[in-house]
UniProtKB/TrEMBL annotation:
Gene3D superfamilies: 3.30.70.20, Electron transport complex subunit B, putative Fe-S cluster (1.10.15.40). This is Electron transport complex subunit RsxB. The gene is rsxB. InterPro entries: 4Fe-4S_dom, 4Fe4S_Fe-S-bd, 4Fe4S_Fe_S_CS, Elect_transpt_cplx_RnfB/RsxB, RnfB_subfamily. Transmembrane segments: none annotated. Residues 72-101, 102-131 form the 4Fe-4S ferredoxin-type domain. It comes from Pseudomonas aphyarum.
Amino acid sequence: MSLIQRIDALLPQTQCGKCGHPGCKPYAEGIADGEPINKCPPGGDETIAALAELLKIPVLELDISRGSAPPQVAFIREAECIGCTKCIQACPIDAIVGAAKLMHTVIIDECTGCDLCVAPCPVDCIEMHPLPLGTLPVVGGLAANLEEQQARAAKRDHARQRFERRNARLQREEQLKQTEREARAQRAAQVEVAATTLDPVQAALERVRAQKAATADAALKKAKIDVAMSRAQLNKSLKAFGHPPTFDQQSQLIVLQQQFEAAEQALAKLESSAAPAPVVAAPAKDADLKRAKIQLAMRRAELKKAQTAEAPPAEIAAREQALRDAEQALHNAEAASVQPAPELVRVEKRPIDDRLRQLKTELAYARADLNKLQRRDGTPADILEKARARLQEAERQVQAHVIH
């Protein structure tokens, strides 16, 4: 083995780039050329000591300016994943599986904790978790014995092999793409030569048509991504907000809903212009109906807020008029929609019991806090017992208030 290969064999093979190089092999080449051996946070003191022994140089302290890299693995919150494949493209060892527009997940046994997949995620659904107990880390900490050192070395070799196989696959794919590009260029040249025998106006039209087709494909792809992004943001907000949402939250939901509908309409417009099938006007009408319902909910919330704050009569009258206008707009949207008209039944609602609302709010918070503590590893037993007691007391108060 060459010196570079022996140095590379001691590096953690996370390919994280924290050393300032695009991978472990380039850093090994830099060390062979005289670079310091303390620029690898994932390797830590163990890697520095091994490199110092190999090169017969003094041991250095880890360069803390490079950050820290404790043993960890990536975790994808799969319910929020939009299937954009950006994390798959960023993973240096193919430890993430999935497909376009489908959920992605991380193979924990293969992940080296490089965290290169976190930044590219457009919906921020990837987080780094501490390495599960019982899982052998690639690097980190001094090995307790020779057997553990050998196991870590085997895992480093495995990660290196996955990285090299991935690079070889990407190189083959790039060569294939280059071949296809050259073939397309050759066909375009043939078309250009053939176009010289055509009428100049017809040849120019053919070139413009080809250019428009390429532009339309790119615009259609971008529109689909925009729809997926806006849908994910809307769904995430709906899950995060309470029920019913507050006035400010309703305003945010309206903006997100409008952005989602605008993205859908833009995509539908591009798809209709690309496909010869007739365009049905129902989605637009349904979107108008949905927007009218949201506007009506907003006007009701504004009127209730003004009444609660004892606003001036003129302001309350204006809110009431806005509510009537929103109701009329909803009726118009229902009449224009292709959906069947709802069967409306007037129900006399009881006055809202503020005390019951407070008790139910406390019950919801107590239940959420207990679930959070139960999911967290290492929560002390006394804290869990207090949380359970709080939940039981909240349930008792709600039941007592309902009975009386």
